[in-house]
Amino acid sequence: MEVAKIISPYEVASFFMARAYDVQAVEKRWQERWASSGFYQVDASDPRPAQYVLCMYPYPSGPAHQGHVRNYTFGDLIVRYRTMTGFAVLSPIGFDSFGLPAENAAIATGVHPRIFTDQRIEELKASLRGLGAVYDWRREIRSHDPSYIRWNQVIFKRFYEAGLAYRAEAPVNWCPGCQTVLANEQVLADGTCERSGDVVEKRNLKQWFFRITAYADELLNALPTLDWPERVKVMQRNWIGRSEGAEFDLEVQGRPDLKVRVFTTRPDTSFGMTYAVLAPEHPLVDLLVTPEHRQEVDELLQRVKTASELERSSSGGALEKRGAFTGSYVINPFNKQAVPVYVADYVLMSYGTGAVMAVPAEDQRDFDFAKVHGLPIVRTVQPPEDFTGEAYTGEGKKINSEWLDGLEIAEAKERAIAWLEANGIGERKVNYRLRDWLVSRQRYWGCPIPIIYCPRCGMLTVPDEDLPVLAPDDVEFKPTGESPLALHEGFINTTCPSCGGPATRETDTMDTFVDSSWYFLRFCDPWSTDVPFNPELARHWMPVDQYIGGIEHAILHLMYARFFSKALVDLGIAPTEAREPFSRLFTQGMIRMGGTKMSKSKGNLVAPSRYFETVGADALRLFHLSVGPPADDVDWTDQTDEIIEGAARFLDRLWRLAVAPEEVLDRSARVETSGSTKAASVYRQQDEITEADMEVKRATHRLIVRVTEDFDRWSYNTAVAACREFANMLQRYLVQGAHRVVYDEAIDTLLLVMAPMIPHLTAEAWEIRHGDHIHERPWPVADPELAKEQTVTMVVQVNGKVKERVEVPVTIGEAEAESMALSMPKVVHALGGDKPKKVIIRVPRLVNVVI
RNA sequence: GCCCGGAUGGCGUAAUUGGUAAACGCGGGGGCCUCAAAAGCCUCUGUCCUUGCGGACGUGCGGGUUCGACUCCCGCUCCGGGCACCA
User: Fold this and answer.
1) pTM value?
2) Measured distance CA(A256)–CA(A252) in Å, rounded
3) Nucleotides in chain B with any atom closer than 7 Å to protein CB
4) Is the CB of A829 under 7 A from strand B?
5) Alpha-carbon dihedral of residues A392, A398, A399, A402, nearest 10 degrees?
6) 8 Å CB contact between A134 and A76
7) Can you tell me the ipTM of this complex?
8) What is the pLDDT of residues A667-681, one digit of tens each?
C-alpha cells in the first residue's frame, strides 16, 4: 500500500479545529455526490461480473422506521462491499405503493390516494438518502405507476390464457372491517383479520384465483436447493403441507347410485374404520340424511353456517366436537362391514375430498369424537406395553387387520394401496395444504383486473393495446365499504372488444402481493415498453444474489414470488435463470419496544431523522451493525440512545486517528506528562521497523482477514468489534510513538474495511488523506504471511484446570511445550514428585497434565 | 398439541473445528486534566472467600461422554416464533 499523503499538522496550527468533523455537512455532501456521480448505476454492458443485491420492496408508509434503517443498512453495506471487491452490483429500489392505508386515508381526509402515496414515497426516499444508502435510482418502480400497472395486467392476461388465473365461486374470508375479501394467509389463527382485528366471516362470492397449487410440488422440491434460512424453508414446507396417502370410495348401504370418496394418509388403518364423516358443506350430506335424522343434521348445519371461523376453530380443541348422525351407513371395502356416516364440523370441505374414514384408535380427533358419540374403537397397530395415551400414532405391528396383520406400518400402507388399486376402489393420492391464491380485492387503490363481461360474448380480457386499465380519478371515497370502482358508471360501462356491444368491467383489483411478485424482474429492465422486461437483461442479472428482508415475509411474499417466477419462465416471459428468483435470502430480526410491538407514539420517538440531525447517519448505522447478530431481534430500550452515543464517540475518535493524529497525541500526552510538555512530533523520527511496528503491521493484515470473513458470514457485530479493537490498539501505538509508514497503512486499512459500514466518515477522511473516493478503491487484500500470528498464549492445565499462561511462538514443538509445562513451579508442585499419568499436548494452544 | 429457534456478567453480546469463558460495547467505580464543568485520557469492573499472595465457584436445570464441554449425547424447565381440526 502506498504511503499516505497527509496534510502536515505543523502547516496549520488550527488545522484540526478548522477541519473538525462536521457530521451534518459531511453527510449531506457525500449523499449528494453519490446521487449525482452515477457510480452506483450499473448496466448489463458492465464488464465486471454481475451481482444483484436487493432489499424487499418497501411499502411507503412515510419516513423510514428503525426496521427500514436496519434493512437498508445491511443492504447498503453489501452493495458497497461487493462493489469494492470488483462486482457490478445492481442495487435498485422501488415502492410497493398500492394498498389499503392510502385508501383509508382518502376516506378519512378526502385526499386522493395517489397524492397521499406520492407524499409518503418522498418522505421514505428522504430517509433513505439521509441514511446514505446508494441505489440506481434510474430504475425506481412504483406499483401504482401506469407503466407498471400495464405489465401487471398483461401478466394477469397471460396467466388467464394459460389457465393459471381463473374465476370461481368460493366461500371466502370476508373482513367486515376492511370490507374486502382476505386471503387465507391474511386470516389469523383465531379467525380475525391480520390488519383490522375484526372477526372474519364466510361469504360465497365469485373471485379471481391464481393456480399456485399447480406448482406445489416444485415449490416444495426446490426448497433444498435454496441458500435460505432453514426456518424459512421449514415454514414454507409446512405451508405447502404435502401429504401422501390414498383416496378411495365407500359404497353407501342401500344406495348403489352413491359413493363417498375419502382421503387418508393411513390406508393401513382401514380395518379400524368404525364410522365415516362428511364435512357440513359436503354435497352428499343432503342425499344421505334420512328423514328421522333430518332435524338433528339441519340444526348442526345451521350452527356451522352462523358460527364464525373463530368459534369453529376455538371450540374445536379436543372435546366439543360437534356432529350428527345422518342415519346412513357406508361399507368399509376392506372388511365389508357397514359403518355409520356422520356430519361433523371437524372435517373440512376444503381439504382432500371433504370426507374421511374415521379410525379413532389411530387418530386423536376421531378418538375424541368417538368417545363423545359412543362409537367403537378398534386398534390396528399394537402400541407398546407402556402406552397410556388414547389414539396411537407410533410405529408397531398391524393387528385386527386380516391380511395386513404382523406387518410394519410402511409396508402395510403399500399393500393397502396396491389392494385398492387392484380392485378398482381407489388409488395412491397426494394432497396439499396449499390452496390457490385468491387475488380479488374489492378495493380502489390497487391494480384493476383487465376483464370485461359481455352479455353476448361472455368473459373477455381487455386487448393488450387498451392496457393499462386505470382506475378513474373522479371517484368519491365514502366509508360505505364498497369499492368506488363498483359505483363509477364511467368505469364500469365499456364496450365489448369482441362484438362492440355494451359490456361491463370487472371492478375487483388485485392483491398487492401481485405487485411484489415480479418487481425484481422489472428492475432488470424498467424501461422496456414492448415486454414486461427484456429476458436477456433478466438473464444477465437474475437470480437475485442476495435478498434481504423481514422474517414476516417468510411465507406469503416469498412463496408468491417463487410461484410467479416459475410461471413467468414457463410462459416464456422470464429466462430460466429466474426460475428460483432469490438464491440467497437473509431475514433480519425485528425491532421490538417494551417487549412487544412498537406503539405509534413510541414509534415516533425512534424516527431516524432524530439521529441524522444529531449524531448522524453513520452513528445510527454503526449502532445497527454492532448491537447484535443481524438475524436477532433488537430491543429498543433506555440503553439504546447511550449505545448510539457511544458509536458517535467512536466515530469522533476514528476521525482524529485518521486526519488529526496530533490531537490524539495531545489528548493522551496531557495525561502522560501532566500537560507540562507536548510531544515534539506525532510520529517517531527513526526509520527502522521495530518489533512493535511489526505487531501493528500484522494486526493490520489480520483485521482485513477478520472483517472480510465476518462480512461473508453476516457477522457485522463482530466485524465492528474487530475494528474497534484495532482502533484501540492504534491509539496506544500512536501515543507510544508510531512509525509513519506502518501507521498510515494501518489507518488506511481501517478506513477501507469500514467504508461499507460508515460510508460518510470514511469517504471524507479518505478524501482528505488521498484526494480520491474510497468507495472506488479495491477491497484490501491481506498478506497471508503477515496475517499469521507469531506468538500465541499457551495454556498449561493440570487436570483440565488452567494453572499458567505463557507466550510461545506458534511454531513451538510438542517436546518443547511439554518440558516447558512440566518445569513450571505450579505443575511441579501439583505433581509432588510423581510422574504425570498422561500429558495432552495441543501445540501451540494447550498442554494438559493429568495426574 | 406439532414444528423451529433461544437461554452466557448489572445490560447488549463474543468465543468460526471439543482446547484461556466473557472479546467489543453500554452502564458503574476510581484517577488525570480543569478555577469548575463538558469533552478527552488512564484504570478497575462475573460471584464468593481472603489484609494480601492466592483459592473456590461460574455459560437455564439434572445426568452422561471426554484429559478437557458454552460447544457433543440423553432427560427436563422457561422464553420467543411458526402452524393449528389439513384426515
Assistant:
1) 0.90
2) 7
3) 3-5, 10-16, 19-21, 23-27, 31-34, 39-42, 55-57, 67-69, 80-87
4) no
5) 140
6) yes
7) 0.95
8) 765 544 433 334 445
